[in-house]
């Protein structure tokens, strides 16, 4: 009786397993007594590409990662982050973005203020002490990057000296620095030596606040007390907007070298900066 007898066992033939072109083949052969030739059959068997699977897993894991947290203003640079935090600490009467409730007289809209000449002189004297301190700190440069903020055009010490001299010529007695100014000066000196991020927060808020709200205060006082005389304190040599932009660029450049934790620490100092500046500003109404 004729029969078909397998002459070889079914076998898998593999090429290199990691190549995408690899595909195992199933080969079976038979021998018949009626024919002299051997009959063989080959079937391709699908197999998963392990390299492809590996890549798929990596992509899936990457896609599953949480998106990086974005901070308000971060896309425009760190100065915008500082501005955002500072504006939130204003009252609605002071700024449209303000969220703070009015608790102190100096937090009311400037149009409601009733300044006194004696109080204003105290304010100018304490302000000069603070600006003297800031200029001395950047000149000394305990941290090298402080030197970036020398001769920015925003300096106020020399301008204030001229104003106080003018008041003296008008017959006014110039008071000595009071507790708010002395205290803030000491705090700035200490921070500048051991906590540069906190110091930069104060530096930014002092100079930029004076260039905005400070001018409104100056106009109000000039109208009520000085026969509309504009003091040197509210004048800048050159285009103020460009001077401010130059300092913004320097601040952003410095902050690029900070960690996220250092940036957050700087932002957290904003409320303290407002507190000390507010104590000096309050002198106008004393």
Automatic annotation (TrEMBL):
Keyword Transit peptide: yes
SUPFAM superfamilies in the cross-refs: Heme oxygenase-like
A GO biological process held by the record: photosynthesis
Enzyme Commission (EC) number: 1.14.14.18
Pfam families the record matches: Heme_oxygenase (PF01126)
InterPro entries: Haem_Oase, Haem_Oase-like, Haem_Oase-like_multi-hlx, Haem_Oase_decyc_pln
This protein's UniProt keywords: Chloroplast, Heme, Iron, Metal-binding, Oxidoreductase, Photosynthesis, Plastid, Transit peptide
Matches recorded under CDD domains: HemeO
Subcellular location: Plastid, Chloroplast
GO molecular function: heme oxygenase (decyclizing) activity; metal ion binding
Name of the protein in question: heme oxygenase (biliverdin-producing)
């Amino acid at each position: 009786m004729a029969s078909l007898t397998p002459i070889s066992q079914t076998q898998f033939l593999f090429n290199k397993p990691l190549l995408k072109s690899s595909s195992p083949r199933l080969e079976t052969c038979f021998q018949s007594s009626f024919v002299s030739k051997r009959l063989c059959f080959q079937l391709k068997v699908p197999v998963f590409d392990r390299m492809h699977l590996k890549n798929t897993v990596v992509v899936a894991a990457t896609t599953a990662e949480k998106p990086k947290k974005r901070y308000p203003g971060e896309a425009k640079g760190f100065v915008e982050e500082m501005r955002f935090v500072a504006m939130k600490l204003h009252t609605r009467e002071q700024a449209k973005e303000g969220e703070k409730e009015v608790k102190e007289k100096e937090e009311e809209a400037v149009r409601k203020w009733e300044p006194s000449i004696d109080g204003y002189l105290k304010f100018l004297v304490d302000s000069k002490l603070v600006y003297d301190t800031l200029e001395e700190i950047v000149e000394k440069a305990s941290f090298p990057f402080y030197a970036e903020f020398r001769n920015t055009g925003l300096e106020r010490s020399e301008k204030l000296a001229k104003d106080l001299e003018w008041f003296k010529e008008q017959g006014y007695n110039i008071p000595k620095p009071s507790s708010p100014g002395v205290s803030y000066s000491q705090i700035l000196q200490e921070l500048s030596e051991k906590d540069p991020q906190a110091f930069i927060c104060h530096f930014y808020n002092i100079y930029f606040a004076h260039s905005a709200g400070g001018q409104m205060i100056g106009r109000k006082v000039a109208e009520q007390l000085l026969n509309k005389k504009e003091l040197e304190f509210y004048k800048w040599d050159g285009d103020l907007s460009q001077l401010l932009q130059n300092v913004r660029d320097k601040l952003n450049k410095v902050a690029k070298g900070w960690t996220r934790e250092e940036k957050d620490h700087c932002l957290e100092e904003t409320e303290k900066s407002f507190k000390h500046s507010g104590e000096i500003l309050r002198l106008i109404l004393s």
